[in-house]
Amino acid sequence: MKLEDFDYELPQELIAQVPLEKRDSSKLLVLYKDTGEIEHRHFTDIIDYLNEGDTLVINDTKVIPARLIGEKVDTNAVIEILLLKNVEGNIWECLTKPAKRVKEGTIISFGNGLLKAKCTKVFDEGIRYIELIYDGILYEILDKLGTMPLPPYIHEKLKDQNRYQTVYAKEVGSAAAPTAGLHFTNELLDKIKEKGVNIAPVTLHVGLGTFRPVNTENVLEHKMHSEYYYLSQNTVDVLNKTKEMGNKIVVVGTTSVRVLETVMTKFGELKECSGWTDIFIYPGYQFKIVDNLITNFHLPKSTLIMLISALAGREKVLNAYNEAIKEQYRFFSFGDSMLITNKYKKDKE
After folding, report:
1. pLDDT on residue 349
2. Cα(46)–Cα(52) distance, rounded to whole angstroms?
3. Is the preceding omega at residue 149 within 30 degrees of 0, hence cis?
4. Most buried residue, 69, 132, 251, 275, by CB count within 10 Å?
5. What is the Cα Rg of the chain in Å?
6. Which architecture characterizes domain 3-63+160-341 according to CATH?
């Protein structure tokens, strides 16, 4: 399986640089994976594809203002760090720039010393273990000093930091937003609940994989970085009941897919658990629970386009992407949305 199999040409002007004024005013492309048919709708129409007794699975992770710009205490050289994940205590895995200036023992100061970071371990590709030194509550300090870690293809400054956060974000710990959920408003969620649809949260803290391209020509040689996940007993109970009643489970975002498929792969059933996952889903993968997915339009040659190709078929996905380009859809984090589902009800969801 070659990397170029997941490539497509995207005009630069279709990369969304800012979020739409109203979250749920984005376009919605519906891809029926059983027939390959496509419909063009708006995101508020998502409610038409949800029925009483169905369950919407959301990732309730919350993005931290993880991008920090400071100075080396000995030379005043400007250093940027991106907090990726908490390893233990005050030790964090970080992406550093310029990495060559950050060696073991290097100390970086942020906000005139309000926060300091000491490099404790050096890895390849700009990765460092950093010990954070501060007084008070870390997340309050990050709120003062940090900014949202927007992907590198977004060049506009974000006016409202909360627009890179889902309205249901709760569990602090992500270095990037689960962007498929950015389209939901509280009003739309209320309407969905009123229709009798369950909303069940999972947690996956999005980490380094979001910022790392696939660099191996043979897709199977790519190594996924691990991300922390949690699945609650309450969500397990809701999902099991949904399956028993023959209703749909509609998963919001590839991050939520990774949680459910990880647990099913590990245990053969859903159960309350937490841990680290480096599951890599690409064509040929047999899905164990996920059948319906709300997602965004993903980067060419990314692990995310591989995941949705595994779910809907590579040719159908690339055809849908070409259709979206023709119809001037907006792509990537602040872009439009896509629903992958079946036109005809399956006996088993």
Report:
1. 42
2. 13
3. no
4. 251
5. 20
6. 3-Layer(aba) Sandwich (3.40)
Evaluate whether 176 touches 211 at the Cβ level (below 8 Å). yes
Q: What is the pTM of this model?
A: 0.93
Residue the block writes with tokens 């992406």: 95
How many alpha carbons lie under 13 Å from residue 115 in its C-beta half-sphere?
24
pLDDT at 211: 60
Output phi, psi for 221, to 5 deg.
-85, -5
Predicted pLDDT at 225:
86
Whether the Cβ atoms of residue 257 and residue 204 lie closer than 8 Å to each other: no
Provide the Cα torsion 186, 191, 194, 200; round to 10°. Answer: -50
Per-residue tokens: 164: 């890179």
Domain with CATH 3.40.1780.10 in the chain: 3-63+160-341
In CATH, what class is 67-145?
A: mainly beta
> Which residues of the chain are modeled with pLDDT < 50?
347-349
**Whole-number Cα distances in Å, 111 to 96, 123, 128, 215, 257:** 17, 26, 21, 36, 38
Number of H helices, E strands in the chain: 6, 17
**For residue 348, what pLDDT is reported?**
44
In the chain, which segments carry CATH 2.40.10.240? 67-145
Give φ, ψ of 97 to 5 degrees: -150, 130
Give the model confidence (pLDDT) of 24-61 as tens digits: 999 999 999 999 999 999 999 999 999 999 999 999 99
Which residues make Cβ contacts (< 8 Å) with residue 56, sequence separation at least 6? 50, 192, 197, 198, 199, 200, 250, 252
Q: How far apart are CA 131 and CA 151, in angstroms?
A: 24
pLDDT digits 0-9 by tens, 216-257 = 999 999 988 889 999 999 999 999 999 999 999 999 999 999
The pLDDT value given to residue 213: 77
Residues 240 and 233: their CA atoms lie apart, in Å, by 10
Cβ(219)–Cβ(282) under 8 Å?
Answer: yes
Q: Name every residue whose Cβ is closer than 8 Å to that of residue 110 and which is 6 or more positions away in sequence.
A: 68, 69, 70, 116, 117, 145
